[in-house]
Amino acid sequence: MAALVTFSLSLFTSCVDEDGAGVPVPPKMLLESNEYTVDLSDAEQTSFTLRWIDVKNAIYSVFLSNNENDVTMPLTNTVTAGELNVLSMEILYTQIKAYLEQANLEEAETYTILLNVKGTPVDPSQPTSLEPTGSTVQATIEVTGLEAEE
């Protein structure tokens, strides 16, 4: 029985750094989902909600882009704070359609666009998981149902 107690105690102490329990690591910016599907012909769906982890000490910019050209479109929709450091933004299907028209992508049945969230540190003296110039997380949006213009 004494050997069992010694073994358990050594496991407990092995989890602690020499300097104590340590400082918590700042949270990393993370999207709830890295892929969305948007069917623009679905009249019942008009938006979807983007959610990401708030790393605090940051300002955020959200924008659409693509891999075919350098056209971007900033989204200035309202950001809502939720529980557990989660921020959310409603992305309207009309914004997706407007971006596709603006980006002038080659005509296709399905379009792939990128949804980007960039976090930039507000106070560089505070701990953060962001790069000094900002860090970006991305999700893909597969878009279908865009009617061809006649």
Strand content: 35-45%
**Largest pleated sheet:** 5 strands, mixed
Q: How helix-rich are the residues, as a percent range?
A: 10-25%
Shape: elongated
What distance separates the N and C termini? 83 Å
Q: Please provide the ordered H/E string of secondary-structure elements.
A: HEEEEEEHEE
Please state the average pLDDT score: 87
Q: Count all strands and give the number.
A: 8
Unreliable spans are 3-20
Strand order of the largest sheet: 1-8-7-3-4
Rg over CA atoms, rounded to whole Å, is 22 Å
The total of helices stands at 2
Derived structural class:
alpha+beta
Report on this model:
By secondary structure, the protein is α+β, with helices and mostly antiparallel strands. It is built from 2 helices and 8 strands, in the order H-E-E-E-E-E-E-H-E-E. The chain has a 5-stranded mixed β-sheet, with helices on one face. A 3-stranded antiparallel β-sheet has the order 2-6-5. The longest helix has 13 residues, at 2-14. The radius of gyration is 22 Å and the shape is elongated. The protein starts with a helix and ends in a 6-residue tail after the last strand.
